[in-house]
User: Which sequence fits this backbone?
């Protein structure tokens, strides 16, 4: 019933906007017809874009992305990449090894470009200026609040030689076309205004809407991508209804007709040698796999479908329902890159991470330029959870994520998570911050709130903010409302600064029939403290000290008796806890025995005492 409600919502256009509380959303509808020439690697296209201005603002101009213009010598992406090659991380240049200085060496028939041939708003020509990867459109008439306009565009493009994400003819994967960022895409306008981010390296942000895309190309090619194929029995190649006779029209080309409801982007890939496999998970969901056995064996590729069927119930239970009717795992040009209803994969190893982006990039879709850690970090965390579950464990299992964050801190290259994704000084610092520190944020939140409470937060976040582009403050407010614990301090320290956590056992002594243990805060980030005492007789005690800034305490997480103390004031460097047991009874004392606290030096977190 919930999925039926969602599908009605996704198809309803303006009515969908009225169903979203708390924040207005712009809305789009794309109708595109493109014709690809596989000999010249060029396409021509027509785009009709219906644009609803649901903001309270009058818009005097609009912006489009022209992503492929980045793949030209001297572009901002080229300049930035070559600059990164002059920065060393140890002995290694900081540049993305897939890009390096390759753009500078592209020949005229290898570069990428997107050229707008004509553009009209409501039938009237408008003036525009190409600013490399951004098209600035100056409107003859403003777009008023609550109104809809229609843009009609003719464009042409050349598919670049595979460099990054999109492109053609990767020599390793042998995939002919990876068609991401392939069409002129209107920029997002939200409560922060326009987001005309030049394409430098990363990331993406788009407007929710519906896509109708007709792709015409050589009949021998097989396409996988976003959306539902509407003329499957004319196409075949594994899309046809079981038992149906495929009747292809005459001619050398086929037109593939796709529709995609309530997505913010559209990707496709094409190759004449794609092997297409499907797996029906339930009546309203089919998984698709497109691959060439070049970077891995057929068995490795097809195991994706087996593992995906196993993982989906756990994913939906912990992170929310998957709402669309299909998902495609597609062998592509490089790396792994997520898109609505589909991912492009260099090899089969990254399938889980990219699919989990369907939740944090596909449905929640924070502005990845400003909040990359809320997409990559949350996805990295979810991947670790699911990997652990598939391996027979229950929970976040990747200690490597913590070690990677610690390595970032010790490198001296760390920048705050608030840094714009393109503006990190080094690629390595961006990756470690967005993926690793972002993942630690969620696991450590389980330490602060309790794991069960944290899981409730994640589900409430999904239920409230899917299809609404939330920001960091929105997530924190969900957590606070769910648990009754104040968390602005956690965001301020972990996200807005590069301060670190370090607690130590300072001293132990007996006094007045009790054993006292003094704990010292050495780092700049204050935290609540779980402290475990283990005794020689095999018993244990948990001592819990909440932080004053929380204005609350997490519930007990296990059956071990727990002593709760008055809150530790964040301005105090030390705090003393005590037990009625004798000092000679203690076998060990440990700060954070669960090791979820990102304590930079755990060597001073534990003390062991010999039995007298």
Assistant:
């Amino acid at each position: 019933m919930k999925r039926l409600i969602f599908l009605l919502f996704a198809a309803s256009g303006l009515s969908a906007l009225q169903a979203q509380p708390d924040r207005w959303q712009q809305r789009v509808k794309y109708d595109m017809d493109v014709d690809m020439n596989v000999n010249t690697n060029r396409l021509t296209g027509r785009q009709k874009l219906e644009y609803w201005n649901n903001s309270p603002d009058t818009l005097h101009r609009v912006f489009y992305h022209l992503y492929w213009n980045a793949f030209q010598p001297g572009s901002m992406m080229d300049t930035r990449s070559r600059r990164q090659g002059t920065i060393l991380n140890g002995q290694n240049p900081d540049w993305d090894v897939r890009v390096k200085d390759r753009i500078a060496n592209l020949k005229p028939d290898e570069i990428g470009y997107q050229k707008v041939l004509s553009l009209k708003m409501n039938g009237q020509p408008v003036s525009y200026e190409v600013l490399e990867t951004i098209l600035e459109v100056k409107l003859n008439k403003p777009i008023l609040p609550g109104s809809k306009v229609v843009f009609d565009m003719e464009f042409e493009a050349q598919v670049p030689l595979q460099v990054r994400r999109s492109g053609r003819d990767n020599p390793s994967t042998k995939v002919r076309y990876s068609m991401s960022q392939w069409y002129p895409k209107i920029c997002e306008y939200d409560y922060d205004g326009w987001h005309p981010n030049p394409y430098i390296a990363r990331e993406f942000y788009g407007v929710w809407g519906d896509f109708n895309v007709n792709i015409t190309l050589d009949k021998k090619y097989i396409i996988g991508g976003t959306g539902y194929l509407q003329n499957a029995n004319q196409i075949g190649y594994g899309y046809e209804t079981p038992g149906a006779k495929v009747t292809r029209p005459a001619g050398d080309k086929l037109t593939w007709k796709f529709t995609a409801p309530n997505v913010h982007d559209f990707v496709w890939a094409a190759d004449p040698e794609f092997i297409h496999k499907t797996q029906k998970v339930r009546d309203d969901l089919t998984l698709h796999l497109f691959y060439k056995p070049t970077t891995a064996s057929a068995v490795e590729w097809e195991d994706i479908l087996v593992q995906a069927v196993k993982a989906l119930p756990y994913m939906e239970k912990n992170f929310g329902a998957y709402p669309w009717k299909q998902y495609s795992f597609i062998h592509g040009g490089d790396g792994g890159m997520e898109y609505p209803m589909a991912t492009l994969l260099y090899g089969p190893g990254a399938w889980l991470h990219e699919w989990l982006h369907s939740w944090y990039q596909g449905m929640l879709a924070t502005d990845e330029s400003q909040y990359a850690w809320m997409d990559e970090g949350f996805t990295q965390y979810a991947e670790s959870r699911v990997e652990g579950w598939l391996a027979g464990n229950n929970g976040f299992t990747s200690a490597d994520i913590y070690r990677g964050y610690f390595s970032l801190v010790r490198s001296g290259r760390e920048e705050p998570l608030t840094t714009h994704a393109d503006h990190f000084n080094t690629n390595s610092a961006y990756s470690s911050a967005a993926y690793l520190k972002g993942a630690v944020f969620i696991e450590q939140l389980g330490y602060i709130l309790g794991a069960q409470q944290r899981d409730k937060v994640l589900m409430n976040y999904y239920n409230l903010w899917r299809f609404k582009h939330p920001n960091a403050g929105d997530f924190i407010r969900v957590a606070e409302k769910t648990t009754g614990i104040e968390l602005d301090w956690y965001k301020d320290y972990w996200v807005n600064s590069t301060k670190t956590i370090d607690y130590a056992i300072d001293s132990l002594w007996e006094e007045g029939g009790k054993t006292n243990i003094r704990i010292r805060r050495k780092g700049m980030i204050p935290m609540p403290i779980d402290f475990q005492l283990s005794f020689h007789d095999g018993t244990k005690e948990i001592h819990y000290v909440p932080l004053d800034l929380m204005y609350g305490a997490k519930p007990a997480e296990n059956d071990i008796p727990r002593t709760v103390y008055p809150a530790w004031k964040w301005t105090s460097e030390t705090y003393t806890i005590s037990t009625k047991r004798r000092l000679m009874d203690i076998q060990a004392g440990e700060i954070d025995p669960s090791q979820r606290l990102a304590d930079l030096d755990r060597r001073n977190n534990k003390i062991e005492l010999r039995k007298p």
Notes: The first strand starts at residue 27 and ends at 37. Residues 1-20 have pLDDT under 50 and may be disordered. Residues 44 and 156 are 4 Å apart (CA to CA). DSSP finds twelve helices and 33 strands in the chain.
